[in-house]
Design brief:
globular; disordered N terminus; 6-stranded antiparallel β-sheet; 29% helix
């Protein structure tokens, strides 16, 4: 991991920004990206008092893993991961230097691999892909308190 920085003006219960960013240069750092997501969401619960379901914790780590893996696999140079809480969801944004937007392939139960984007699209509230002046930016949103079993972890304020 090249650099990780939490926003300095963080507020939680009164509409302020809660975010963290880090740049990753190597494929071996994908586990560090997942660790950053887990640590960030743990702080969202413990420090900022926002509920985060166990399901959301798992899904965010999965989305981070898939998006950072794709960035490291298909684009030269580092990628930038940003996690930000907004509107009851965590937005996972990954920027990389590759200009080509990913395309989800048609469902094929016989295909081995290349299901990451399909999975991300299935588990997220929304996903956006944009070309940038250099590279592309992919943003996926995961609802923090989404738990089909009805259980919500963390403090309710």
């Amino acid at each position: 991991m090249v650099h990780a920085e939490e926003s300095e003006g963080r507020e939680s219960l009164f509409g302020g920004q809660i975010s963290v960013s880090a740049a990753f240069e190597g494929s071996d750092e994908i586990a560090e990206a997942r660790d950053l997501a887990r640590s960030f969401l743990t702080d969202v619960q413990a420090v900022h008092g926002l509920p985060v379901s166990a399901r959301a914790m798992d899904i965010v780590q999965l989305v981070v893993s898939e998006l950072v893996t794709n960035a490291r696999k298909y684009a030269p140079g580092p990628c930038l991961l940003t996690l930000e809480v907004s509107g009851g969801a965590v937005e996972v944004t990954v920027w990389d230097s590759g200009p080509v937007l990913p395309i989800a392939k048609a469902a094929d139960p016989d295909r081995v691999g290349q299901h990451g984007l399909e999975i991300v699209m299935a588990v997220c509230r929304s996903i956006e892909m944009h070309r940038e002046p250099v590279g592309k930016r992919i943003k996926a949103a995961v609802v923090l308190a989404d738990d089909p079993g009805g259980g919500v972890t963390g403090r309710l304020v």
